[in-house]
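Appendix C reproduces, verbatim, an entry submitted by the partner laboratory led by Prof. M.T., so that reviewers can inspect both the input and the predicted structure.
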Amino acid sequence: MLDNLITEFDRGLRTLFAPAHSARPHPDHAVAEAELSQAEKQHALGLMRVNHCGEVCAQALYQGQALTARDPAAREALRHAAFEEVEHLAWTEQRIRELGGRPSLFNPLWYTGSLAIGVAAGVLGDKWNLGFLEETEHQVGAHLDSHLSELPAQDARSRAIVTQMRDDELKHAEMANELGAARLPAPLRGMMKLSAKLMTSASYCA
């Protein structure tokens, strides 16, 4: 248990303070940079900062869930999802830098809160743990769809990243469903949406 805690603590530090790396090519690696006005660049930057923050939260959430998952298959599903979220971190982090910005100052706060939620979800049992994963990914997928409609039409680099992220998130939701995820109660789903809205508003600007 102590070894696991040390490993997870190290993972948290790397998530927050070390550059992320991607095993897959970045989705925008072959896409030319577009000409963006200053306003368009700032809006794209804000959206990509929000997406990066969401991936930080996902790392913490799945880390907490994997720590408390009982079923090996559920634990492996959570770790697989977390691995792909690291790639998302790398993609969004690089894009933020390209747009002239930096990640959200609130990332440590969101990470801590998401880790606590993940641990709590796992304690409830594997079907609820997987249900939380499924609902999270559905909400993130809808969130990314909204960003695709908001990003400047000519910003093909950001759009390529967000599109691949959305596709990955929906696959994670399908995986959770196939493993027996329970449907979360409507009030809890509403609370998750409200929490995501607060995080989005704060991270867009800072």
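The mean pLDDT is 88. Additional entries are available on request from the coordinating office.
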